[in-house]
Amino acid sequence: MNAYFDHNSTTALRTEVLEAMLPFMVRQHGNPTSRHSFGRTARTAVEHAREQVAAAVGAYANQIVFTASGTEANNFAIHGICSNLEPAQILTSAIEHPCVSRPALAMQVADSQVKAWQAKSIKVDSNCNINMTHLQNLLQAPTNLVSVMLANNETGVMQDIAKIAELTRKHKAYVHTDAVQALGKIPVDFFALNVHAMTISSHKVGGPLGAGALVLDKRIDIQPLLYGGGQERGLRSGTENVAAIVGFGVACELALSNLTAFDMHTDNLRQHLETGLDKLNAVIFGRDGLRIPNTSFFAFTNLDGETLVTALDKVGFAVASGSACSSDSDKPSHVLLAMGVDEDLARGAVRVSFGMNNTLDQVQHFLKALEHEVTRLRNLTAIAA
Fold first, then answer.
1. Which option is the CATH number for 15-256: 3.10.50.30, 3.40.640.10, 3.40.630.30, 3.40.50.80?
2. 192, containing H or E segment
């Protein structure tokens, strides 16, 4: 049996999405800035997609700035917002994706003024929840931006962004949230979250790779990401990837209509998985936190996660050892270390993230394969010792 259990990494392109994209890949090749009929058709398609994406997150179409990825949108948020402000603190949570934490650090390194930027990390507790007391203490110093992800890509734990935003706004700082892992899994409402900027991405919700967006409060002053022909209201110049944007729009519309079914289906799969994991004495991370429904992050003591992931792949199960964007690193998950997990146990981490096409039968076969591989690898370790 072959089963793909790595939907937090990327998802398959939905058939409806591909069908919507194809005309703009093979027949309708107008540049959206051109005045002729081909260009006008492309422009209409981009603006319709903008409306679809906005509707999926409870925003207005003119708040959507299309980018080439979630990573680009996060970099845009950090650099764009802070570049128009006097140097102060940039606060990011200790569990952020590197495409948030590294741009913040880059701002700190790049500034050679006496009054320089300071990138600081907000602590989390053992359940992967933001330590609000630590955030409160950090905010006593001048702060320009706080960035906290809505749902963690490894543990699946969700943060109370509205509460974080309320506290942050009291200290006159801007708030950004990376909602890439939340979109399509839970309801996401830009205004209810009370943030100034939010990042989303296409390929996490059955859309194409190469499309993302930054959702912006219309009152925010942000430095352009790219200069050039003035596309995306002058904030992100460059000829639009029309096919990918069209696909992003359709994927968002489908995801929004499918939220309840996704929640019920994937949560049921996870419950069966974690019942089996308990019988195998696995440690499940973030289990006592509020999680997106499709994600389980676990480990077995004295067992290397990368080795287990490889073994499971050979018997037909695609799982992850953490963030796909950091899979080239031999370091334990920074998320687990921030949660206070022992380094040796953190090295054993394995992530399962379900999608709508996964089944209970696949979960049951996975648990049998997992038990076999855990036993086999431990026996090999015992022999080697």
1. 3.40.640.10
2. helix 190-193
Residues annotated as part of the active site? 325
Buried-exposed string 304-342: b where 16+ CB fall within 10 A, e elsewhere: bbebbbebbeeeebebbbbbeebeeeeebbbbbebbebe
Residue 256: C-alpha distances to residues 53, 57, 100, 187, 328 (Å): 10, 9, 26, 8, 33
Q: What is the model's pLDDT at position 29?
A: 86
CATH topology of domain 3-11+259-384: Aspartate Aminotransferase, domain 1 (3.90.1150)
pLDDT digits (tens, 9 = 90+) for 317-370: 999 986 445 544 568 999 999 999 999 999 999 999 999 999 999 999 999 999
Q: How far is CA 260 from CA 156, 158, 186, 288, 342, in A?
A: 17, 17, 8, 22, 36
Which pLDDT band, with edges at 50, 70 and 90, does 1 fall under?
Answer: confident
pLDDT in tens, 211-269: 999 999 999 999 998 999 999 998 999 999 999 999 999 999 999 999 999 999 999 99
Domain ranges of the chain: 3-11+259-384, 15-256
